[in-house]
From TrEMBL:
Keywords: ATP-binding, Kinase, Nucleotide-binding, Transferase. This is Tagatose 6-phosphate kinase. Belongs to the carbohydrate kinase PfkB family. InterPro entries: Carboh/pur_kinase_PfkB_CS, PfkB_dom, Ribo/fructo_kinase, Ribokinase-like, Tagatose/fructose_Pkinase. It comes from Pseudokineococcus lusitanus.
């Protein structure tokens, strides 16, 4: 009997618009050389990379209006299985990313509209129906303003159905997911510290693990990924010499982590896979894409993991 598919929820999907320009400038007219539009949101990117890796996956999306219908049609055309909850409203939000060949990308992200309670009940019903023992449920991305509290219900619902739960979120949603018993949390260092109010990463990890003992994998940018579970933390350095567009790299890393763990890998191996997939995403033209040839080549250059320098320790500034 095959394993249940990975269910990936994007709580606040978007139409991602990317403008390629000669140079990013403020206060003037900038001519756009190339425009691309594609379905967006962290969960969409995670699901797309999982699909590229050959994983059985379904993207769960609350969508609204004409823009939401376009997102659904575009994803189906790409061959990504989708489960849609129609939430009404005027339309799914947009994000605009401006890129050139010199500066880091500039992203303009609309907040999205809060969903009616009945819409979240429909989302929870989909989670309940699609998650099963042995399955994986991923929540990736921001929530509409004020809806972060729903993450606790999402975690408890998926775990109640027997699935392992991964949350890639920021702000209050990250802490609420930890308190609800998420199995794996994947913030970056800034998100972990900001969400918990901790003075340093050690304190942030301690706060996120203090209730359910979740595994916490923290992205540390150029310093790689740091994995915290029972025992000594492990630092996985990034693949050296990778230059490109980092948009979506964290989403690809989450996909690599989930795919490896789903396949039975231990945590250090899975974190190494995450580092390779994140690097491959940097080389790809758009978020949600990786080239399998890049994945293979980068894997050969991956440094060995090593013990993290500073283990988690009590931090009096951690938010209760």
């Amino acid at each position: 009997m095959s394993a249940p598919p990975v269910v990936v929820l994007t709580p606040n999907p978007a139409v991602d618009v990317t403008y390629a320009v000669d140079a990013q400038e403020v206060g003037t007219t900038v001519r756009v050389r190339r425009v691309s539009r594609r379905p967006g949101g962290k969960g969409v990117n995670v699901a797309a990379v999982l699909r590229t890796l050959g994983e059985d996956v379904v993207a769960l999306l609350p969508l609204s209006g004409d823009a939401g219908r376009w997102v659904r049609t575009a994803l189906e055309a790409e061959g990504l299985p989708v489960a849609v909850v129609d939430v009404g409203g005027t339309g799914t939000r947009s994000t605009v990313t401006v890129v050139d060949d010199a500066l880091p990308p500039t992203v303009y992200a609309e907040p999205g509209d809060p969903l009616p309670p009945a819409a979240w009940e429909d989302v929870l019903a989909e989670v309940r129906a699609r998650c099963a023992p042995g399955g994986w449920f991923v929540v990736a991305g921001s929530f509409p303003p004020g809806d972060e509290r729903v993450v606790g219900d999402l975690v408890r619902t998926a775990r109640g159905a027997g699935a392992r739960v991964v949350v890639d979120a920021s702000g209050p949603a990250l802490v609420l997911a930890a308190d609800a018993g998420a199995d794996l949390l994947v913030p970056n260092e800034e998100e972990a510290r900001a969400a918990t109010g901790a003075a340093d990463l050690a304190g942030a990890v301690r706060r996120l693990r203090q209730h359910a003992g979740a595994v916490v994998v923290v992205s540390r940018g150029a310093d790689g990924l740091e994995a915290h579970a029972d025992g000594a933390p492990v630092l996985q350095p990034g693949v050296p010499g990778v230059v490109g567009n980092p948009t979506g790299a964290g989403d690809a890393a989450t996909a690599g982590l989930v795919a490896a763990l789903r396949g039975g890998a231990d945590l250090p191996t899975a974190v190494g896979r995450a580092a390779v997939l994140g690097a491959a995403a940097v080389l790809a033209p758009l978020a949600g894409q990786v080239d399998p040839a890049d994945v293979a080549a980068l894997g050969a250059r991956l440094p060995a993991p090593r013990p993290a320098t500073v283990p988690p320790s009590p931090d009096p500034e951690v938010t209760p």
